[in-house]
Amino acid sequence: MTDDAFRPLADRMRPRRLDEFVGQRHVLGSGRGLRRAIEEGHPHSMVLWGPPGTGKTTLARMIADYWDAAFVTLSAVMAGVKDIRAAVEDARQRRAAGTGTVLFVDEVHRFNKAQQDAFLPYVEEGTVVFIGATTENPSFELNNALLSRVRTYVLRSLEDADLAGLVDSALTDAERGLGGRELALEPRARELLVRAADGDARAALGILEVAADLVGEDGGTIGLEVVREAAAAGTRRFDKGGDAFYEQISALHKSVRGSAPDASLYWFCRMLDGGCDPLYIARRVVRMASEDIGNADPRALTLALNAWDVQHRLGSPEGELALAQAVVYMASVPKSNAVYTAFNSAMEDARDNGSHEVPVHLRNAPTRLMKELGYGRAYRYAHDEPDAYAAGETYFPDAMGERQYYHPVERGLERKIAERLAYLRERDRKARDSD
């Protein structure tokens, strides 16, 4: 049995030249900067940022081949500063012998600050050509000092057409793929495989390989059910705490804010499908109810809290359905961020204006001394006033004067609230003018 028999299909099908590389035309297309640098021999350190299965490791290997450099790999999961120094010492010896070194660091975002700093002098002086691979946003996960010494290239999820072409190549390539097994892939099965791969070349080839094994060594037709079985363990991209996590909750929040119930429901389901804790979504839904709907429809907050309670009490699937109800309702009703904006403005004043004393007329007087000092003496009890409103009364600290934080919008219930507040402010004006 040959060594290739033990290599996964995804490894055997790695492209050997740039022309074989699938996808990433925005950085590797004809005339693009990275492609020119690779083909014309202009080594530079870089970070490759993109989702799994987009070719980061393959591209790094290919770059080393084009530049006739040694390819050395470190995994940030396993390596430490000692391993970095050992790799650099080997690179120095090769450099003295006239050979360059591409030092490939997989999952570079997992290195801490000290480990990342350890690369700086060697990248600076060119001892190694540093290529880091990460699925996380480098601007959040990597030191500025390291980022300033490298170029960052963003790799994208593969398009369906690219994945379909890769699958077809694997089926027909007799040397590295499955071409010697007389396999056929039904069109609908091919579509399902591409969708299940979710932009990940490695996943697509992995599903195809499992499906081929299910059919057997004698070959045959890979149908819809076979692909469904092969892809059963797959999940959509969703990494709790990673970029995909925050991007999807952002998409859900902005879809609700934008009054797009169908898109809101889609992103909600994407997060559930990816394994997000529904209770986390419930907490964020409550936030949306206050931040983006507020008093335009106060029922949204009640519905959000009720959905959270259902999820907590009953779990799946009843709780998820209740959350879906809340999400769709909130996306459909009038929006107002007036309370959210007012809260932020009031908090800014509370932080920035010092510890103003409570006006004497607003203080309670539970003791004789407090009464003698005049606490509460001039207070006007609103329920004893016409229409239960003490027109002209002041409630802010004397040093601040009157402020207006809350500006209701002309939507939903807040339209009525705005009318009521305008009426009361007019009464205040008249009462103060008459004094």
List the helices and strands and how they pair.
Elements: H1 9-12, H2 25-28, H3 33-40, E1 46-49, H4 56-66, E2 70-75, H5 81-96, E3 101-106, H6 113-117, H7 120-125, E4 129-134, H8 138-141, H9 144-147, E5 151-154, H10 160-172, E6 183-185, H11 187-197, H12 201-215, E7 220-222, H13 224-230, H14 243-257, H15 261-273, H16 278-293, H17 299-314, H18 318-332, H19 338-352, H20 368-372, H21 413-434
Parallel strand pairs: 1-4, 1-5, 2-3, 3-4, 6-7
Report on the architecture of this protein.
The chain is α/β, with parallel strands linked by helices. The protein has 4 domains: about 130 residues, Rossmann fold (3-Layer(aba) Sandwich); about 70 residues, Helicase, Ruva Protein, domain 3; about 90 residues, Zinc Finger, Delta Prime, domain 3; about 80 residues, post-AAA+ oligomerization domain-like, CATH 1.10.3710. The protein is about 50% helix and about 5% strand. The strands form 2 sheets. Strands 2-3-4-1-5 form a 5-stranded parallel β-sheet, sandwiched between helices. The protein has a two-stranded parallel ribbon with strand order 6-7. Helix 5 links the parallel strand 2 and strand 3. The longest helix has 22 residues. The protein starts with 8 loop residues before the first helix and ends with a helix.
